[in-house]
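Table S2 (text version). Query chain:
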Amino acid sequence: MKNLVIAAGYATRLGDLTKNFPKPLLKIGENTILGRMLDDIDRIPEIDEHIIITNHKFAHIFEQWASEQHYTKPIAIIDDGTETNETRLGAVCDLLLAINGGSQIENRKSENRKSIDDDLLVVAADNLLFFSFQEFVDFALAKGTSCIMCHEQPSIEKLQRTGVVELDENNRVLGMEEKPQVPKSHWAVPPFYIYLKKDLDLVRHSVENGCGKDAPGNLAHYMVEHTTMHAWPMSAGRFDIGSLDTYYEAVEKYGK
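Corresponding structure-token output:
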């Protein structure tokens, strides 16, 4: 199983803090946002590589960071070639670039990778998590299907700004809506997914068949409509770092 980290955004809501620096590598205490996540994922036996998809503007910064890490699984940095928020590919296209053999940074030279033919753990790189991804991997392997995460969200206002799923009694996903005005459940979907090898052909052809490109949830929505998927209810919470205020709150709460 490959760990694919979507990290090609420009974090414009954090202003000058991320104008020339990637949000996932901002510090929370002695570690980075991304480092805290990889500390957990690297311990999962099924994971054999971390693949970080970023943009051209920040690729060299991720390359330097990766050269200083000592994880048990190798880290590959993929440069999507974009340099501005206006020209970004979108999270789904970045994922497809990685799956189909994008360019890997090796000693500041670009080398084409082989296309991926493996199970995928796909994660956004701007959250602090208070559970282990091992639980998610175990759930997906037990179900034998591609999976999403979900958590109960009592606020209708917040549900209207995220993906919302309906589940049956076995946590099979019956339907998913993006930013519904009238949510059909209180199950919100955070940006963490497992796509099994058997579904990769669907993933590869998703955009050409009408899947939205911008947010990773677009792909989850597309997959729900084309294959059987289950949802793992998160066993603990997460902290989403989406603005300057939430970043400084995270530093204050979790950086000491």
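Notes on Table S2: Residues 104-110 have pLDDT under 50 and may be disordered. The helical segments are 33-41, 56-67, 91-99, 133-143, 156-159, 200-204, 216-224, 244-254.
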